[in-house]
Amino acid sequence: MFERFTKDAREVVQGAVADSRRAGTRTVDAEHLLLALLEREGSRASFALAALGLAERREPVREALSRARRHAGLTRAESDALAGLGIDVSEIVARVEEVHGVGAMAGDRKDAGRWSGRRVSFGQGAKDVLEKALRIALAHRDRHIGDEHLLLALTALPGVAAEVLADHGVTYGTVTRVLYGDGGEAAKAG
């Protein structure tokens, strides 16, 4: 499938792998793809993010992703659902971190250097984003998968990345309008 990726999309995937390695994780997740997209300049996705005002708000997005990672990758909706059952995720995180250190529930590794040279794999969330990007590109009748398709996929799939983007006004609909105008909404792939 990677042969269908544009140079920009390939660089996003490579950036996500590099971010995963820096974080000491063994898998690339959807959040790593989002972080890599935030670093892009001069591409269709970076244009859309800038048009939606996210270029100036990169740091709050990074902080929100970091906070979610500390909470074992739970979305706010999942944390709220657990709160409805009387489970305080913040309290659990605090107690676990008292015993095991900050970031213990994030899966962050203290021995990250040991994994730096090894090949990282793609987690299910990242795989879903890549597959959804392909479907979106096909729905738009685009021959290649660009970084804009990765951005659209991140907004279309449920999870932390979509929640954080939506909190900043970046949704499938807003990105589609910026990239394709009003006619692009119908191309949301299933």
From TrEMBL:
Residues 2-185 form the Clp R domain. Keywords: Repeat. The keyword Chloroplast does not apply. PROSITE patterns: CLP_R. It comes from the Bacteria. This is Peptidase. It comes from Streptomyces yokosukanensis.
